[in-house]
Fold:
Amino acid sequence: MWDYTAKVLDHFRNPRNVGTIRKPDGVGEVGSLACGDALKLMFRLGPDGRIAEVKFKTFGCASAIASSSALTEIIKGMTLEEAARVTNQDIAAYLGGLPEQKMHCSVMGREALEAAIENYRSGGRTRHVLEGKVVCRCFGVTEVEIERVVRENSLATVEQVTNYTKAGGGCGNCRPEIETIIARVQEELRKAGKQAPAAGRMTNLQKIRLIEETINREIRPMLQRDGGDLELIDVEGSRVVIAFRGMCARCNVAEFTMKDVVEARLREFVAEDIAVVEEKP
Structure:
């Protein structure tokens, strides 16, 4: 049994934006049924050039469905330039984390988004062209794809590469070549004096996005039912500063609400070490 977060289970059981768009501006298809996971992502741009509608259809496990659902929620309202910067770690962070063995689902989501954007910008190219030499023939994973996940997710073993791409998880003949690629990328990073971000660690921007989403989905509706609201003022590491609005600002149980509702939800969906404080006028 995989150790799924409550957020993963929610997006698996209640996936958002499932379906198709009648006249999409961009369509991306990645994966294959033969490999066990397949995803079709499409979007429509609004008059302002932002993603007004996004839908997906997927065949895969709970993590594949949840990752696809989360991705559609993340990119709604973004420009294509902003959406193109979304990483597989952003998807995993939005879900409160994924099991290491299921990280390939977040990578598949990012690849489908890239394919859809490429489809739009190329004027209708229907296939996402694989870049570079195919290393893993069992799952059709290229050298470029392996290099990218190693660099972006700070991977150090073949097993980790398999978790993120499935490469090496079939016949195993490609495992020595994967080891060579890992060593080469790590040496390049060392010489450049760079270090890829640690796998599973959220950037401050990712944390802020997840905090905002959790407030909007899990906390704000509850407060607004009683005539209250809150505003996110600042995020300093694990310290989250809020200000109550409406009826909550005058409520004599605001301290209880802050700790037992706001802080509890943020610890559940974002990080266990979060501490919420209220900005006083």
